[in-house]
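Example 9 (inverse folding). The structure is encoded as follows.
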């Protein structure tokens, strides 16, 4: 078995937007699935971790794309572990057409937690540090690592939503990709007729659960760059807690449906 895993996906039409291109949220799910396939095959995946009350939790994700796969198109996701420390590991992705044309790349940082205490767990304690066997440092990932998203206190409150059943994942908190989808929805379809997302960065800080309210604060920090801060409100204590920050880089172009 090689250190780099390669998995095929298809841009199903009901996972595409009005332009006939794969939605970023569904691409994010494909990246997370590829990560799970890769780690499971190599002895440190969720299927095994759940039996010992451990779980992977996404801490950071960056996706940078020059183009999105079009509907019905088959594409591949390659993924590999770039580095591992006691509590965090860095995993990269390459998204490409089946003929080899590269659409883009992803970078991610993962933490392992104890599902009973919700505290960080030692990655190297899993199967005698088996993850170290699979670290790949020779394959490049040419996109920049995600930086800290800086925002001031003048960011505009643009939306507040309730957290419901479909937002929650196997770990009992809001699914990592749901945050991305909710942030993307801050712009309407008329914006996306003339813009596409070139890069999306998200850094997760705290968990959100059903019954919380999520507030979205948006700030324009460049010509086509926006930052978004998500804050949850606990309905019992009414206490506000920042849960994640995002940075979105758009590029202008007229959306055309693939032929």
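The amino acid assigned to each position is listed next.
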């Amino acid at each position: 078995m090689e250190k780099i895993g390669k998995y095929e996906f298809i841009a199903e039409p009901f996972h595409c937007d009005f332009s006939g291109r794969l939605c970023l949220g569904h691409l994010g799910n494909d990246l997370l699935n590829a990560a799970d396939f890769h780690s499971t095959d190599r002895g440190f995946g969720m299927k095994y971790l759940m039996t010992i009350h451990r779980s992977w939790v996404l801490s950071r994700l960056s996706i940078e794309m020059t183009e999105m796969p079009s509907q019905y198109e088959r594409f591949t996701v390659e993924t590999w572990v770039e580095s591992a420390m006691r509590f965090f590991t860095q995993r990269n992705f390459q998204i490409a057409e089946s003929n080899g044309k590269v659409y883009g790349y992803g970078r991610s940082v993962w933490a392992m937690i104890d599902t009973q205490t919700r505290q960080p767990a030692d990655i190297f304690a899993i199967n005698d540090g088996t993850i170290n066997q699979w670290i790949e440092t020779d394959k490049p990932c040419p996109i920049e690592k995600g930086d800290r998203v800086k925002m001031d206190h003048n960011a505009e409150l643009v939306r507040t939503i309730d957290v419901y059943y479909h937002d929650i994942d196997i770990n009992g908190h809001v699914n990592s990709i749901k945050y991305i989808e909710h942030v993307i929805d801050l712009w309407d379809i008329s914006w996306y007729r003339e813009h596409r997302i070139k890069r999306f960065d998200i850094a997760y800080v705290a968990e959100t659960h059903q019954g919380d309210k999520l507030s979205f604060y948006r700030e324009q920090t460049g010509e086509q760059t926006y930052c978004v801060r998500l804050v949850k409100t606990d309905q019992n204590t009414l206490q506000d807690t920042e849960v994640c920050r995002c940075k979105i880089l758009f590029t202008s172009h007229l959306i055309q449906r693939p032929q």
